Amino acid sequence: MKNLILTTVFTCLSLVFTMQYAHSAEMAKKDTATFAAGCFWCVEAQFLQLEGVSKVISGYTGGHMANPTYKAVGTGKTGHAEAISIVYDPEVITYDELLEAFFVAHDPTQLNRQGNDVGTQYRSAIFYHSAAQKEKAEYYINKLDKENIYPKKIVTELAPMKKFYVAEDYHQNYYNLNKEQGYCRYVITPKLEKFQKIFKDKLKEGK
């Protein structure tokens, strides 16, 4: 029920925002969004399902260490979050719709964790690439809080995109290549199935 309400609210808010900012410059053919929402294996698998998303890259951002490794980020001392860089066609899927998927894909009220994954590397964050992305993210966070969609306040970090470090090769497309692995079967698959039901009208053909 909460997800249905969230989706309905986003549809309404998106229409309002689009009307308010219809004078904005047209977006380029391809654009990029960068989100952190817990373990990047799971979030990557979710966003790869969406029509209009051409590429999802797992990596690290938001910290102070150059060229971080998975092991280093896992210590929680680099300042980096596990994140995904999403390349998408705004004529097929809008940034508003990606934000909707972001807020459904994880619990944005959990501070520095997602479920049993604990640490600042698993924090909820939106790394904006433009003033327009920042404005939209702020708009939706404020509206979702005002509508009390979640039982607690959203703690999603909002920060400018600086340097994105691509994660090691074995992290890319992790779920699709390791579906029988324990974490994939018992953590990612249930979340992915729920995500697919909510966004059934926005999935790529065959998903």
TrEMBL record:
Enzyme category, top tier: oxidoreductase
Membrane-crossing residue ranges in chain numbering: none
Endpoints of the signal sequence: 1-24
Domain Peptide methionine sulphoxide reductase MsrA intervals: 32-184
EC number(s) per entry: 1.8.4.11
Record-annotated active site: C39
Alphabetical keyword list: Oxidoreductase, Signal
Catalytic activity, reaction form: L-methionyl-[protein] + [thioredoxin]-disulfide + H2O = L-methionyl-(S)-S-oxide-[protein] + [thioredoxin]-dithiol; [thioredoxin]-disulfide + L-methionine + H2O = L-methionine (S)-S-oxide + [thioredoxin]-dithiol
Xref: InterPro entries: Met_Sox_Rdtase_MsrA_dom, Met_Sox_Rdtase_MsrA_sf
Gene3D superfamilies: Peptide methionine sulphoxide reductase MsrA (3.30.1060.10)
Gene Ontology molecular function: any one: peptide-methionine (S)-S-oxide reductase activity
Pfam families named among the record's database cross-references: PMSR
Family membership noted in the UniProt record: Belongs to the MsrA Met sulfoxide reductase family.
Protein purpose: Has an important function as a repair enzyme for proteins that have been inactivated by oxidation. Catalyzes the reversible oxidation-reduction of methionine sulfoxide in proteins to methionine.
Protein name per Swiss-Prot or TrEMBL: Peptide methionine sulfoxide reductase MsrA
Organism: Echinicola soli
Gene for this chain: msrA
